[in-house]
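BUG: 3D viewer hangs when loading the predicted structure for this chain

Environment: internal workstation, default settings.
Expected: structure renders.
Actual: progress bar stalls at 90%.

Input used:
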Amino acid sequence: MRSEDDDRSKRVETERFKAYTYEELTARDKANLDITWLRDPSLDDADNLPAPEVLAAEIVEDLQAALEEFAAIAETLQQARGEGPTAEAAPVAD
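Structure tokens produced before the viewer hung:
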């Protein structure tokens, strides 16, 4: 999340950051500033889309699985530092 103090207009050019004007960018060969979204051809037919409640349940399931994996990683890191219940390294799921 960006801080309110993170005003990008106040950035100073450095070795790793250089500001370019719109004219400099469009003058480049093959410059293209068009924004396009990649389309998923399997979603073109709205009649074959899963029901919203099915999509919501799948999203919840995916997020819960991801949370469990991150919790296991956090526990392993705590144990490696000697902060967890045991100092043994817990196996991490692939």
